[in-house]
Design goal:
single chain; about 350 residues; alpha/beta; Rossmann fold; 12 helices; globular; binds 2'-deoxy-thymidine-beta-L-rhamnose
Length: about 350
């Protein structure tokens, strides 16, 4: 099947990262994909080499859709539904005009809030054009669209952290407002007392200072990201895609959620934590939650020193590691997003637009 993916990059790496992962997984299943995007620099960083002829990355800002000869897609996927005025180039509109009969699936943000189950696979018709969009919700339960995990490298599954009790490699991929300095300072202090904590700072984190137990990690292509995470013992991740990959890695992790202006992210963080932490002992759960809150800057001012929450978490890492492997197995045996998308498409016959009841 030939599939179109519409990716409008709002910021950072997540919009492009998710779209690319989806495209590569579809191609690995034998489909061909045109991935239309508006941010060549970001895609260049994530996908520096042309790895497969069946995947075309198309800079939609540089083409005229009316004259371009495009192969008709049998399915169009629009991750994150950024077709609003947020983005400058409305190439989603051009594709809707060119291919009005193609089933269109809008893949929304990942959330563990309970409402996503009832909205998953609901339809909406544009009153002015009649174009039908179906809303697909990724998630952690069997009533959602699941997560992309078909691409997780099998040789990395079930790997335990290599380090002993005093040595720990910590991966940090965070937004600039995270208390990174407090994390580094507390690790520096632990090391003076005989520990061996080392921090790898990914993304555009500020450069470490002299004497810090931290170093900057060069950006790796997305195809090397899982391998990179696998070399660390604890993962600080953010947004959506690295958050999911940390869970698939089966490691203890601290999630910095993408902050929204309406503060809805605090509720989302708590919903996921409730789900994830089920089965942890009370002390471990509290220590982890304190770290998540502090790392996200959520709570009443003045915020407690993050370094203290972090140090309080360290004795719980063995329990968290065992828990993380159980969670990894639960996800890998749970719903797989790419398969769910294809199953949905196989049920759209002839197409949604031709269905008389819509
Ligand atoms: O970069 P993110 O914060 O992305 C986002 C965006 O803010 C976006 O608007 C929002 O929609 C989303 O979060 C929820 O974090 P995320 O989602 O983890 O994406 C990062 C991607 O970058 C992911 O695919 C992994 C990849 N990556 C690499 O391939 N190599 C690297 O070295 C690093 C650090 C990341």
């Amino acid at each position: 099947m030939h599939i179109g993916i519409v990716c409008k990059v709002i910021d950072n790496f997540g919009d492009a990262g998710f779209s690319l992962r989806l495209a590569k997984a579809l191609v690995a299943m034998g489909h061909s994909v045109d991935l239309f995007h508006d941010e060549p620099t970001t895609f260049q960083a994530l996908y520096p080499r042309h790895e497969n002829n069946k995947l075309s990355l198309i800079d939609a800002t540089g083409i005229d859709f009316e004259i371009q000869r495009l192969k008709t897609p049998e399915l169009i996927l629009e991750p994150f539904g950024t077709s609003s005025e947020q983005t400058k180039f409305r190439f989603d509109s051009a594709l809707k005009r060119l291919f009005p009969e193609t089933p269109w699936l809008l893949i929304d943000y990942l959330s563990s809030e309970s409402w996503v189950e009832s909205f998953h696979l609901s339809n909406s018709a544009d009153p002015s054009t009649g174009h039908v969009t179906t809303f697909f919700y990724p998630g952690f339960t069997d009533k959602t669209g699941g997560l992309i995990h078909c691409d997780y490298p099998t040789h990395l599954i079930g790997k335990r952290a290599a380090s002993d009790a005093t040595s720990l490699n910590i991966f940090v991929f965070a937004y600039p407002n995270a208390p990174i300095r407090e994390l580094i300072d507390s690790c520096n202090a632990m090391n003076t007392r005989g520990s061996d904590l080392q921090i790898g700072l990914a993304g555009n984190a500020a450069a470490p200072e002299q004497g810090d137990c931290a170093n900057a990690i060069p950006f790796v292509a997305q195809s090397g990201f899982d391998e990179l995470l696998a070399t660390y013992d604890v993962l600080f991740v953010r947004g959506e895609d690295s958050f999911v990959r940390a869970q698939l890695a089966g490691k203890p992790f601290i999630w910095q959620i993408y902050p929204t202006e309406d503060n809805a992210h605090a509720e989302k963080l708590a919903c996921f934590f409730d789900l994830y932490s089920t089965g942890l002992g009370a002390d471990c759960k509290l220590a982890l939650w304190n770290c998540w809150l502090g790392w996200n800057g959520i709570g009443s001012e003045p915020m407690p020193d993050f370094g203290k929450s972090w140090i309080a978490l360290l004795p719980h890492l063995p329990e968290l590691q065992t828990h993380a492997l159980k969670w990894q197995s639960r996800l890998l045996n749970g719903r797989e997003l790419v398969k769910e998308v294809l199953t949905w498409r196989s049920l759209q016959t002839p197409t949604l637009n031709e269905k008389p009841d819509l």
